[in-house]
Amino acid sequence: MDKTQTTDLKIKLYSETSLPTTWGMFQISVYRDNKTQDETILISKNLDSVESPFVRIHSECITGEVFGSLKCDCREQLNLALAKIETDGSGAVVYLRQEGRGIGLGNKIKAYALQNQGLDTIEANHKLGFGTDLREFDIAALVLKDKKVTSVKLNTNNPEKLSSLESNGIEIKERIPSITSVNSHNEPYLETKYKKLGHLLGKLF
Question: Which residues are catalytic?
Answer without folding.
Answer: 133, 135
